[in-house]
Automatic annotation (TrEMBL), chains A, B:
It comes from Cynoglossus semilaevis (Tongue sole). SUPFAM superfamilies: HAD-like. Its EC number is 3.6.1.1. Its main location: cytoplasm. Its cofactor is Mg(2+). This is Phospholysine phosphohistidine inorganic pyrophosphate phosphatase.
Length: 279, 279
């Protein structure tokens, strides 16, 4: 259970995990745009005694290409600090001897180069965007209904995300579609899966109560972290929309409301934490 | 509550409601193909003293074009006997003063000619097939999240249907997708909505226990009819797949299992009924 007392929680803090899209940058044409103050906020965290990791449900590019984009936007960030779902899925597939039918964005395909994809016995979906065509969804459906024990992996379960030209449907929507079509429950790999947060905590060698997650998604970032025993903070950039996301508040640590009453881009979140901890 | 005793139920029978796709014909290229024996089965019903109606979740064509296709396949059928969702949705939209954003198949658009579609305050989806593109789903999503009180009508809630080249995802799958994206519950117009069955019963001026529904969908045809107090029979043509649909059996009238143990194209279903009723 997370410590719900902010001052004592912040004083014991040893690591921060940042969501990326909607916290560091807004995606869109080209590389998208950095959110004002976020480049400096990352610098400030790196200059502190806190450990820093980046945890994302981004599944449209390989880790290398994704990190290169963030570097071009001005962020001080390296591949080893970033945790996306695709490498985690590849590890699970290898461990369980599964051969995937992939319904993913073309850019992330190289992450699956080392995996046998012949005669598939499971389906993996990511944020495939335009690849979520009727034809491709039918193909994934037919693979699943043809299996005696259908297995569907979903890289995240987000509802939507914000690009510079508006809100776009995320992978969770198509996960629900295939779950209903095949009457099955997908295995989610990515946020808010506890296993995913624990991998990041393990990499920092920290206990949950020593780490804080900052994201723009109340369910996948804040809720996922809280279910793990971490503290969660929601920024009001990215997909944050006051009227839409309040439905989820009841499920979450009530103390969250206290911090949610203030406007919250990433720098303000750090100021809030700093008010309790020297940083 | 339906009479679960087949002999007495069949003797009191005054009307039969037939599902169309998967019972009368399999859809596919061109007009699709009539299922062997189904043309004669319709003739036999028309020659009996039973009333006959056709109840379909077909939303890819206007009633006129849809019925013309069935006539070309050889069926004795007229427009006034056929109940699809689109005219029912149009009635509801007019009654509630709603202006729809339509995500439907092009062929059904003329059904909505009489409706104001400017500045939409609800979304209507049907079996849009290839029109279920990522872009069109995003557009429908954006309309819904932009409304203070989002309203989504779904013309049916089927999981999939069979065309001559294989199984295809039906409207229910995309209904679930938008429900999850917007955290709302769609209003289903079509089978298995009780209101939809009651409209057909009203047209025949029959009580539920006097009517029987024959379809290939255990949830939408058989279950929907049973929830209305009608009797339901599943044929084993169309989308019927032994291993996939058993999950729904538990929810239904247990007596159904008795009839489901026999192979069941439409003519055999009529033979079964005839064994209890002179026809």
């Amino acid at each position: 259970m997370a410590d719900t007392n902010w001052p004592s929680c912040c004083r014991s803090l040893k690591g921060v995990v940042l969501d990326m899209c909607g916290v560091l940058y807004d995606s869109g044409e080209g590389d998208g745009v950095a959110i004002p103050g976020s480049i400096e906020a990352v610098q400030r965290l790196k200059a502190s005694d806190l450990q820093l990791r980046f945890c994302t449900n981004e599944t449209q590019a390989t880790r290398e290409k994704f990190v290169a984009k963030l570097q071009r936007l001005g962020f001080d960030i390296s591949v080893s600090e970033v945790f996306p779902p695709a490498p985690a899925v590849v590890a699970v597939l290898k461990q369980r001897g599964l051969r995937p039918h992939l319904l993913v964005y073309d850019g992330v395909l190289p992450e699956f180069d080392s995996i046998d994809k012949t005669n598939p016995n499971c389906v993996v979906i990511g944020d495939a965007a335009e690849n979520f065509s009727y034809q491709n969804l039918n193909e994934a459906f037919r693979v699943l209904v043809g299996l005696e024990k259908p297995v569907l992996f979903s890289m995240g379960q987000g509802r939507y995300y914000k690009e510079t030209d508006g809100l776009k449907l995320d992978v969770g929507v198509f996960m629900k579609a295939l779950e209903y079509a095949c009457d099955l429950e997908a295995e989610v790999i990515g946020k808010p899966s506890p296993m995913f947060f624990q991998t990041v905590l393990g990499d920092m060698n920290l206990q949950p109560h020593e780490a804080l997650m900052i994201g723009d998604d109340l369910v996948n970032d804040v809720g996922g972290a809280q279910h793990c025993g971490m503290k969660g903070v929601q920024v009001r950039t990215g997909k944050y929309r006051q009227n839409v996301e309040t439905w989820d508040l009841e499920e979450l640590d009530q103390n969250l409301e206290q911090i949610c009453t203030e406007p919250h881009p990433l720098p303000s979140s750090l100021d809030f934490i700093c008010s309790f901890k020297q940083m």
